[in-house]
Amino acid sequence: MEFWLWSLCSLLICVTILLVCKIHVLKKSAEEISDAFSDRLHTETNTLIDISSRDPHMRRLAEKINCQLRILRKERRRFLQGDLQLKEAVTDICHDLRTPLTAVCGYLDLLEQEEVSASVRHSLSVIRNRADALTELTGELFHYSLLASVEEEKLEPVDLKALLEESLASFYGAMKQRKVVPEISMPGLPVKRMLNSTAAARIFGNILSNALKYSGGDLQVSMDEEGEIVFANTAPELTPVMAGRLFDRYYTVEAGENSTGLGLSIARLLTERMGGEISSRCIDGKLRITLRFPQHS
């Protein structure tokens, strides 16, 4: 009796050890599959998931995941190819539109020099307005397509404060023409960031251009020591919902008759590409666009 009891205990111990080993092997295989799957999703590689375990169930699971990865890789390549072809097509179309638009604007210049009636003069003004809007849209769309095709910007040390001051100075004439006297607040010391200076200047220019289009006659620009920049202006035509959509491609509001809807979209694209954040909100008829570029160590 005592012999059988010891035999049973020994058997249970052996089974327990086997089960513990099996669970350890399955856990290790699951971790290998999880790590490999995460790696394959975030890297462009033809290597599939392989595990050290010989367990048939875990190997069958890995093979099924590999089948889905092959499908995903194929669809990703098809998407990237189609996206590239679309960007190239948009760029080519914009380029092809420039020649006839230049001709249209040239003939308009000639017609505007002719002696015509008031009704014809009004019609020519409408045609000029739409031709200029189409020219601007074509140019912005062309630049947007080029920017979207670039994966990343080349970064360099930039004084964000000095760059913002230069951008504000470049808009002095436009502000004076619209009788806008900006209220500017800057920190005493330079604010250094790793940025692409050309891209950052484009961001400031697009934001300031948008502010002048929708401004009710005022403009406040402030930067703190942490590099957070706020552009604020009275925008009576905007609602909180409209402000939230200002960064959407082609979205415009009724007040921006000559707006292409791409300026702020380009600003967001460039900001996010350089690791920054941009947001907009409208409270009590006041539009605030906030721009942040974090300090990277």
Word description of this protein:
The strands form 2 sheets. Strands 2-4-5-7-6 form a 5-stranded mixed sheet. A two-stranded antiparallel sheet has the order 1-3. Strand 4 and strand 5 form a beta hairpin. The chain contains 8 helices and 7 strands, in the order H-H-H-E-H-H-E-E-H-E-E-H-H-E-E. The chain has 297 residues and is an alpha+beta fold. The protein folds into 2 domains: 16-149; 156-292, Histidine kinase-like ATPase, C-terminal domain (Heat Shock Protein 90). The model has no long low-confidence stretch (mean pLDDT 79). It is 61% helix and 12% strand. It catalyses: ATP + protein L-histidine = ADP + protein N-phospho-L-histidine. It holds the Pfam family HisKA.
SSE diagram, text form:
Blueprint lengths: L1 H41 L13 H57 L5 H32 L6 E4 H11 L1 H6 L5 E3 L6 E4 L1 H18 L5 E4 L5 E6 L5 H5 L18 H11 L3 E7 L2 E7 L5
Parallel strand pairs: 2-4
Antiparallel strand pairs: 1-3, 4-5, 5-7, 6-7
Helix pairs in contact: 1-2, 2-3, 3-8, 4-6, 6-8
Keywords: Kinase, Phosphoprotein, Transferase, Two-component regulatory system
Protein name: histidine kinase
GO molecular function: phosphorelay sensor kinase activity
